[in-house]
Amino acid sequence: MNVSLQITVMKQIERLRFPFLLTASVLIPGMSALAQAEKSLPQLGKNSNKEIIAAMTLEEKAKLVVGNGFRMPGARPQGPTIGQTEEKVPGAAGTTFAIPRLGIPSIVVADGPAGLRIQPIRNHDSSKTYYATAFPVATLLASTWDTALVKKVGVAFGSEVHDYGVDILLAPALNIHRNPLGGRNFEYYSEDPLIAGRMTSAMVNGIESNGVGTSIKHYAANNQESNRNTVNTIISERALREIYLKGFEIAVKGSQPWTVMSSYNKINGTYASEEYDLQTTILRKEWGFKGFVMTDWFGGKNPVEQMKAGNDLLMPGSPQQSQRIIDAVNHDSLDVKILDENVNRILNIILQSPSFKNYKYSDKPDLKKDAEVSRMAAEEGMVLLKNDGSALPLKSQKKVALFGNTSYDIIAGGTGSGDVNKAYTISLLQGLANAGYAADDEVKQQYAAYLADYKTKHPKKNFFEEFMNPTPPAPEFEANKDLINKKADESDVAIFTIGRNAGEGRDRKLENDYYLSDAEKQLVTNIADAFHAKNKKLIVVLNIGGVIEVTSWRDNADAILLAWQPGMEAGNAIADILSGKANPSGKLATTFPADYKDVPSAKNFPGKEHPEQATGNGFMRQVPAEVTYEEGIYVGYRYYNTFNISPAYEFGYGLSYTNFDYSNLKLSSSSFSNKITATIAIKNTGKVAGKEAVQLYISAPAKTLDKPSEELKAFAKTKLLQPGESQTVSFDIDAADLSSFDTNRESWIAEAGTYSIKVGASSKNIKQTATFDLTKEIVTEKDNKVLVPQTEINELRSQRKAF
Length: 803
Ligand code: BGC
Description:
Largest sheet: 6 strands, mixed
Distance between the termini: 63 Å
Bound molecules: beta-D-glucopyranose
Strand order of the largest sheet: 1-2-5-6-8-11
Radius of gyration: 26 Å
Number of helices: 24
Structural class: alpha/beta
């Protein structure tokens, strides 16, 4: 393809990806000289925002609320990925407009949830690099059940944001794992909003402690990648409030992030970024959010409606958007007072930014220290799913037959804007070697040759070509039976890694993704048969970002370690768990269903397309689509537990190399007035030190409201308990924890009746139960009637009672 044709194609690809793309804008000038010259003008920080806004022209206002634009693919020098600025921080996702005469600097925003995504090499000069730490993906971090640890990750993460001159990180991301096929689930924490919200708060507090901002995303109900720019999400008020907004509410109240990023999708008919009730009524009036809202890249359609909704900044921005805003003010269809508020909110955040403070960033983060944080977090979030006959930790087995493509080519994290440009990734091969294990050479050679050959035949494409037509991962190398049998003789143990990758722009598939491929199934069987015949074990490592099917093959494995996508220290962290240097303490924050057909959203994912209403042609073709959340509040364990559907591994599940005893559950009172405290003693009764994630579920009376059989209301992770050591864990429960959203009354209601507190090691493994009474109903909150679906939803109800 010649260069100009290639650029044209890339432009078309980008329009397809961001269908509302207009054209790239010209980037901004620097600020200082002009600012000096105009001393008499009010200056940001020295004068009030009111004075600054009064001194701004309409054009300046309309440019400040619209980002500086998007560098087109094909422009030189090539940036790595989606958002591409060439200004202060190459490879960052965007910048805002500077107004030097008023002392308003441009600020820089960059992705993403697992590490800072900027261009690692500038101007082809590799003598100085700009790599960032790849931390474990959010799904792994949630599996730590440890908000203090996640905050620690945030502190390290934020220091890199600060050191690289970025003002706002476009993360964390906290959409709900509604369906295992969600392409971006790895970027998100959990199927449960309490975990999602608390992890997000911890992460935001950690990152922002460095004096930089965050953008929690994607607000809201962005639970799929299929048709993400056009899909109308039809959802009940209750499911929205209890499941899809709850995490954002917890995060806003618990960490007051600098910014929120609105999502692409429509909610009950209106684009999220154009929905006043989402961006203002709920976010600001009900929850008290004080920062600004920015769109996702090219999100929404109508800039004027976005301003009115309270979506203050349009990213990455185009001159046409500014023009439409100017025209609307001039034609009285946008009150300038609204625009002034948008501007004011942006200025408030700019005032806090490193750019405003003229921070002299070093471009030299302490990557070594942060890699240690990444490794430590990875170890804390890996989940031991199976461990028959104490297959793990490995004892004297030092000779390992290492199978699986991703043992050699491990996946640190997912693709798209959730990817990180890291300096290295430790493979499992390397990690095992570092820990003193010898991987069989013959097996290694065969994999190396196979993977090298695949790479030669599939040369690296650029980001845009890859987005349009992703290179499939190398099909699993089919190690032959003779080799496997030989290695069963020669080695002490077999390790087989199964890897999966996914990312922005696409949901996952069932075949060869959610389900194992035929080659993978065959390998599991062949390796298990050969090694079991010699009385040796098979350990399966799952290097995945989202849930896969395990029921059909797990009997073959002696142990299964869910390593997730553990960041750049992957191999070292996995080896630490396999060797027993670290004791696994992660537990599932998302259910592994027995089969896909059991998933409550399976029949409504990813929804329906309406090709007859399509507009545009070719790359510009847009197909309206809709998805109805018929499962309502019954997402994840709320469904499996209430409807008695046995999952493969339930929410909250995870094994340890030690055992824990739960005793002495006590409630501060047997009747509820406005708070109850529950305490429980956790004792390590095994032989090695370990930590336990303790979970508190509540079963409500469900007399007048439909309720899941259990809902997670609190959780904690113990400290490292030595054998024989105990810790008393305490949980506070308030009236809001008992309440559910009653759509008829637009209120959160804690019903009168008897409640059970169930403290356990998982959502199914309840160890101790206690009850208390609430004598009189409490209305904990009265909300606005907003975001009402326009069509009837045939919503799932619990069979516990007919409501
Ligand atoms: C993604 C966002 C990301 C933005 C900037 C969008 O495509 O959905 O999560 O922050 O690009 O790169």
